[in-house]
Design goal:
The protein is of the alpha+beta class. The protein contains four helices and 24 strands. Strand 20 and strand 21 form a beta hairpin. Helix 2 runs antiparallel to helix 3.
Length: 385
């Protein structure tokens, strides 16, 4: 009997509970996503510069490849890569033994030829004076004149050999043609330098320019004097600027691109030989722009996340030109001025989700207080009380 009573009471309690749950109103709560105000971007009109892409490398307009002009052994290389030089500084010394000996021989030959000529000149002058008074024959005077002329020719040849040997000796000392820095050292002590062998390269850093190429179908947009903004390979955080200085009249035979030379406004921290890529600003226009960080690329489509009337929506947009200086993209369709979008769309975002915008996160202060270190009031671990 007690067991039956207990069973009946249990069933009654279960039915009562089910009935109560059915009668209770359902409570649905939708939690909105919190967004910081600083993470939003307001669409506005901005300046967008566009034009043909130019790619190439940095080259020195003023540079000299120093090569051996005589065959000799490299005795000493006095400068290394990156060393500054002044005009006339000695850079490389070649073995000058045979050239110095040749110079001494030429000097002696020139001295002997000078003496022979002087003697022939004096003898001719004497016979010439005697010929006028009839003391000597005309034939004797003419023979003396021939000997004087022959001696004069030998003297001229001796002086030419002396000048040549002097020049050959000077060529054993390779000097800087202008002030600059050593860009490339090729020779080392003990090398055998044949005529034409590369020794050093000297460049003038202040003459660095951007030598690039533009596709032939876009070269009509490039004009002398236009601004060029470009990045150097390895340092995309620093934008460099220059001006179109010259456009080559003939396209490259292998790439069919046209060479363009760009003078730089500032050559500081630039190195010859680095690859560079940029854009010629041939067209400047006003357009709605968005930062590159807000853009989401999915194949051939571009999207952004717009915050409007407390909701988050994924919107497809049409992009225009990209400004290489700021990195912003022009918008041709999908947004209007004054729209608000996410600056950095990251994480899992739901289209149509509710959004709550606050200037400062509400839990920022609490989080800072929670994560703050607690001061230890009893560092020694003593028992209290």
């Amino acid at each position: 009997m007690p067991n039956k009573t207990l069973l009946v009471l249990s069933l009654a309690a279960l039915l009562s509970a089910c009935g109560g749950a059915k009668d209770a109103p359902a409570k649905e709560t939708k939690q909105s996503m919190l967004i910081v105000k600083e993470d939003l971007v307001t669409i506005s009109s901005g300046r967008v510069a566009s034009g043909p892409i130019i790619s190439g490398s940095l080259e020195a307009k003023k540079q000299a490849d120093l090569r051996a002009e005589v065959s000799a052994i490299v005795v000493q290389v006095l400068k290394d890569n990156g060393d500054k030089v002044q005009s006339g500084d000695l850079l490389v010394r070649l073995d000058d033994t045979i050239y110095r000996q040749a110079l001494v021989s030429s000097q002696e030959a020139e001295r002997a030829a000078q003496q022979s000529f002087d003697q022939a000149e004096r003898q001719f002058n004497r016979l010439k004076s005697l010929s006028t008074s009839g003391a000597v024959s005309t034939q004797a005077k003419e023979d003396a004149e021939l000997r004087r002329n022959a001696a004069q020719s030998e003297l001229a040849a001796a002086r030419a050999r002396l000048a040549q040997d002097t020049q050959q000796l000077e060529r054993t000392q390779v000097r800087a043609p202008f002030a600059g820095v050593v860009g490339s050292r090729v020779a080392s002590n003990g090398d055998t330098a044949q005529v034409g062998k590369a020794l050093l390269k000297v460049i003038d850093p202040s003459s660095i320019r951007f030598e690039g190429f533009v596709p032939s179908d876009q070269i009509q947009q490039v004009k002398v004097g236009q601004t060029v903004n470009f990045y150097v390979n390895g340092s995309h955080d620093q934008l460099h600027a220059g001006t179109v200085e010259r456009i080559n009249p003939v396209a490259d035979t292998s790439t069919r691109q046209v060479g363009v030379q760009v003078s730089l406004k500032d050559t500081k921290n630039l190195t010859v030989g680095l690859f560079a890529e940029g854009r010629v600003q041939s067209l400047t226009q006003q357009s709605l722009t968005i930062p590159e960080t807000s853009l989401i690329q999915q194949g051939d489509h571009a999207y952004i996340w717009r915050v409007q009337q407390g909701k988050l929506n994924k919107i497809e947009i049409q992009l225009g030109a990209r400004d290489i200086q700021s990195g912003d993209y022009a918008i041709t369709e999908g947004l209007k001025e004054g729209d608000t979008i996410l600056r950095h769309p990251r994480g899992i975002l739901v289209d149509g989700a509710l959004v709550s915008v606050e200037k400062t996160p509400a839990n920022a202060t609490k989080s800072a207080a929670t994560n703050a270190p607690v001061e230890n009031k009893n560092p020694a671990g003593k028992k209290e009380g």
